[in-house]
Amino acid sequence: MNISAKTLIYAQLYIVMCIGLLIGAKVVPDTAIYITDLINLILFVKIAQNSSCFYKLKIYTSLYPIIILSMLLGIALFSWIINGQSVAMFAWEFRSFFRYYIYFFSCVLFLNKKDIFKILKILRIFLYSNFIVSVIQYFIFNITGDENGGLFGITTGVNAGVVLFCCIMLSYYLLGYFKKYVNIKQLAINLFIILSLSILAEIKFLMYIILGFIILSIIMHFRSNRSKYLIGLSCIILLIGAFLILSFYSRKYFDNLFNADTVTSYVNQEGGYNFDDGGLNRGIAISKINDKFYYDNNINKYIGFGLGSCSASTVIPTAFYAKYSYMAYHFFLTSYILLEQGWIGFILYVLFFISIIFACFTIRKRFKNKFIFDFTIAVILLAILNIWYNASLRSNSAYLIYLVLAFPFILYKEYILKFSKNEKSMCEYNRTGVQCRKISRKMPHVFNRTIHLKY
Questions:
Q1: Closest-CA residue to 93 (of 411, 368, 315)
Q2: Among 19, 36, 136, 249, which one has the highest count of C-beta atoms within 10 angstroms of its own C-beta?
Q3: Which residues contact 81 (CB under 8 A, 6 or more apart)?
């Protein structure tokens, strides 16, 4: 049976949103999580079968993300060779680290503009569904805190997926409101839902993100009449949020949320989540890793100990994790990447996101409607904050972020194909070694037009 790439991309989306709950409820075995890897493998084969895929991706995404990803791959291979770790450990972690990029490029190649709107509709439905499931978990099954993940599951740490998902939806509704795709009623309902999810799952970081994003949106659109309505709505929503926090937790808990000394202590406290000597916390993860492992400025500081050498996976246990698991370094993406790929790998990892921001700013000039580009930029900025906050960008929920990252390039692909008479000739022309800027001379009608896409 020949399953289309688009069907697999959608299947991945549904599985990512529901598999955590199905595993937590024992409906499916724990190994069902690897279905996402099987889908990724098939998508990779479908990409490889397309002889001109590289040339298409070079045109659709620009060279910068591809160059940075190639450098990241080079560092991973170089570090593996230098450190002489086992092939099995490297291969397993390679799968875990680079799987999202396969999904990202698959979305760019195989989805179209209509799929973007369909996916956004699916995500809206998921938000409401996740809220209902989360409420049921809290009030009926007494599942609270880190274990209250709604559709993302009911095991410790699943609320990390809620953070990424809510960051996407918060960006969509706040930006959509000022672009007049979302009315004040829709904004009110969804802000309440997102804030409620953060309270039910006790995600302080998300509470701060909601407050900060609202304030930033008001400042950036202070001349708009819509900002005045948002100010009034925000006061009501925040009052409701304060009431819920006081009802579910305590007055001391509420006061500590706005106490700078308490927040600083919480972020930088020794012992981290495990409250053990030497345990990491998000505020001290980078400095602790540098002091403990890279104090003599050796080569590992720059290239790490190798992809897979510090893996916390139970499938292929590592000696490093057995010795240093008390540090809980795998709870934070900063410490995890610094250990495995060093400072060069960490910087390249962040640069990949930044390169997409630059690509969005470049591409958006050709479109009158810039909502998708602004939406993607907002999601990327929040994703970069998540690198510091936790390790959710290593979880299955990270597929949602990379799906959104593909949106601008999907639009740009359609923009190019809309005005090019023959996609194959364009790719063949590029195959000769002529850069994209020279293609613009051959097809000025493609690269010099500004078009309006309705959302």
A1: 315
A2: 19
A3: none
Question: Which tokens in the block code for residue 285?
Answer: 């993860």
**Three-state secondary structure call for residue 311:** coil
The tokens 């672009």 sit on which residue? Answer: 179
Q: Quote the Cα angle for 187-232-117, to 5°.
A: 15
pLDDT band of residue 35 (cuts 50, 70, 90) is very high
Phi, psi for 410 (deg, rounded to 5): -65, -45
Residues 69, 54 contacting (CB under 8 angstroms): no
pLDDT tens track for 2-29: 889 999 999 999 999 999 999 999 999 9
- The answer to whether residues 215 and 202 touch, using CB atoms and an 8 Å cutoff, is no
Looking only at Cα atoms, what is the longest distance across the chain?
A: 68
pLDDT at residue 303 greater than cutoff 50:
yes
Tokens of 307: 């992809």
Helix or strand or coil: residue 332? coil
Q: What is the pLDDT of residues 173-202, one digit of tens each?
A: 999 999 999 999 999 999 999 999 999 999
Gap between the Cα atoms of 211 and 213, Å rounded: 6
- The pLDDT confidence band at residue 420, using thresholds 50, 70 and 90, is low
Q: How far apart are CA 5 and CA 11, in angstroms?
A: 10
Amino acid occupying residue 134: S
Angstrom distance (rounded) from CA 157 to CA 175:
29
Calpha distance 6→107 (Å, rounded): 8
pLDDT computed for residue 346 by the predictor:
96
CA 293, 294, 295, 298 dihedral sign is positive
Residue 112: name the closest of 444, 358, 418 by CA: 418
Long-range pairs, 117-126, Cβ under 8 A, ≥24: 117/455, 119/13, 119/403, 120/172, 122/13, 123/165, 123/168, 123/169, 123/172, 123/400, 124/169, 126/17, 126/151, 126/165
Backbone angles phi, psi at 451, to 5 degrees: -120, 160
Task: Give the start-end residues of each E strand in 204-341.
Answer: none
DSSP state of 28: S
